[in-house]
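Incident log, support desk, overnight shift.

02:14 A customer reports that sequence design results differ from what the structure should imply. Their input is reproduced verbatim below. On-call engineer (initials T.W.) acknowledged and began investigating.
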């Protein structure tokens, strides 16, 4: 039982860190500080790009998102993590 609790706690911290990294990426993008020369910016981009890229491709493949100039992939990723991925993983861990 304690290993499940530790695993759930670790997973919650992981998802919180991922959400904050996505928020930092959005702020860097808004402030136009998103360059690969800065090591902090590079770290944030390298960590968040594999998460955001599928949602970005999904947005631009859809008929609604194709003509939009705003990238909604951070919002889509955060919603998917919060309401789909996190509950599924936590329920799978609770079954162990």
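02:41 Re-run completed on a clean worker. Output:
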């Amino acid at each position: 039982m304690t290993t499940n609790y530790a695993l759930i706690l670790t997973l919650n911290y992981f998802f919180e860190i991922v959400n904050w990294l996505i928020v930092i990426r959005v702020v860097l993008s808004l402030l136009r500080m998103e360059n690969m020369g800065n090591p902090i910016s590079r770290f944030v981009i390298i960590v968040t790009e594999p998460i955001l890229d599928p949602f970005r491709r999904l947005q631009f493949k859809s008929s609604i998102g194709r003509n939009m100039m705003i990238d909604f992939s951070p919002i889509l990723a955060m919603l998917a993590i919060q309401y789909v991925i996190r509950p599924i993983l936590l329920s799978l861990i609770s079954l162990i």
